[in-house]
Amino acid sequence: MRVDAYEKVTGKALYGADRVLPGMAFAALALAKVGRGRLSRVDTSAARAVPGVLLVETKFDELTGPGFVMGGGFGFQSLQPMTDDHIAYRGQPIAIVVAETPVAATEAAEAITAEYEPEPFALHLDAEGATTLVQEEAIPLPFLADIRVGDADAVIENSAVRIDSTFEHPPQHAVPMELNGGVVEWQGDTLVVHEGTQNANALRFGLAQQLGIDAANVEVRSPYVGGGFGQKNSLLVHIAPLAAVSRRLGRPVKLVLARTQTFHNGSFRPASKHRIRLGADATGKILAAVHEVDQQTSRHDLFIAMHTEVTGRLYGYSAFRGRQRLVQTDVQTPGYMRAPFESPSMFAFEQAVDELAHAVGRDPVELRLANDTETDPITGLPFSSRHVGDCLRRGAELFGWSGRNPEPGSMRAEDGSLVGWGVAIGNYPGNVAAAVATLTADTDGRVTVAVDGHEMGQGIRSTIALLVARDLGIPVTDVTVQVGDTTVGTQHLTAGSWGTATALPAVHSGLQELRKHLNVSDTGDVDVATAVAHVGHPVQVSVESLGPGQTADALAQSKVGHLAIAGPVFPGFVTFSWIAHFVEVHVEPTTCRIRVPRVVSVADCGRVASPVTAASQVRGGVIWGIGAALREETMVDDRFGGFLNSTLEEYPVMVNADVHRIDVDFIDKPDYQFNPVGVKGLGEVSMVGAAAAVANAVHHATGKRHHRLPIRIEHVI
Ligand code: MOS
User: Fold this and answer.
1) Which of 259, 263, 434, 583 has a beta carbon 3.0–4.6 Å from 554's, enabling a disulfide?
2) Which domains does the chain have, with CATH numbers?
């Protein structure tokens, strides 16, 4: 069940830009039309002449930069547009217009013209002018360093079977249903921001920094988010200027970016290139692997690459080398997008493993099972849980894998289509954030839970409500969950699939504390109203919760808007979530159109906390994996800069007609070493390996190996 389903389907759930406030004005942005350069003149006269225009601003001297979220700051990028004349990328805002109506604001923004002194720009990994940096030299943090376990190159050199394959992954953009934007208002000296975000806390502290005001005077309300996928994980560049114009006008102001504007004013999945080398014995036992990655970043920030962290853990090799480089290009700073490193890495690595299976003539499921391990190859520590073998075995059973003819191009559907069956596994780090949970038991028997978390459609509110209802034996309708609101809690970033593993242990320990204060037993059903009546007043408890090995310092960081995350390496163990995908593709022989009639995905996410929303998460991840494999790519414009296909007409995502049967199952074995509730992450691992399984299925159908995504009709013909 989904506790907020009623609110959502009846339109009662209010998203940021749904707020309608008295006296509200409307803003629109004008964007730079040059790939890089200096802004020499902005002509706003035509904009000011549009009836209903209240304000046109091109420069905000009072704003400082938000700092880069991965460098101790709060912004998706360090660069704050409209603070100087430097244009770092096409699509960077150069003016903001406020008017009485959205139509007037948009008309005025479009009437703004500008002159530039253009500079050369680079958009591709291999473009002239792109600058390549070795990550461990550019960002000296231990978890970003090259990985060297044993002498992988030498082992590969001496292996009986060698695979050496390079794969390219294009830039992709998240296109959440809820566009970036919202409403800001000043209540006296207090700035109130209503905007969909995964990180209300960063917005609060980042805006305080940018505007030079006290964080106590910033409130961020984000009870519902219409999809985040990483793009809403930090402070976006439109919010501080919006707050500034609202303050100048003394009115609330709403701004909703057009879809095409979100392609340049939010992070995206950067382009990456992967060279995978495997060395194996004649049976396909992988002895060593090397994974070398080049990943795009912006000129002004170093967005980190963490691809080798997952591929280094996939199989039981005795030697592994991972090297990552960052390539600076003239774009806004890229960032996290669902399974940001894991999905591209697995597309590459799991195809190389498929190549190995083919080379040694071994079934791809068997080969993967033969390379399973209980020990983390990188640290030598045990995994707290790793049931990927069970995922493979159960998935093979449910899919009917034993009916596969290993010969590529050997299977046909009734309509003559080539049939391909592909498999791939995926993993995702087990992360956790420090959190605070406040539980209140009321005289009417209702329980209210306020905890760090953001509801972006993944179902965290349902997951928390279910835990409380089951623990106390009360109806789920008697539980109110408050998340995404800085006035009720810290609201640390919800991302990296740590939401459930962060909120549930905090709420679990809050429930134990609540029971003590209600003078009831440690377990069993509770008559909350009666217990509260005995106490004589509503009972409130607040608990602080840390991940394994985390210290109170993490909470102190979280309380000032910074990241407070631990994992996947903990004292004495390593935690990952696991998945296996089985995919059937049909390649129509004359048009070469690829369809995906069925998928079976089996996940190990520890205990399944909320079956309905969990299955939905996996379906969403698989659908996105199919989209990544067959459709999605953001094209860059080498003539004028920026991204070209920045609309839903031109950036094709999967729609209902593309999606057929997706069967989801779970191993559902709790991981109590990771946390007392036994839950691991699920949202992102769902997608990891799905694109690889599609690509492997296409190879099985056609005999052709695709080294670049997406795999479109023209590549199959
Ligand atoms: Mo997610 S890409 O970690 O918000």
Assistant:
1) 434
2) 381-430+567-717 (3.30.365.10), 432-565 (3.30.365.10)
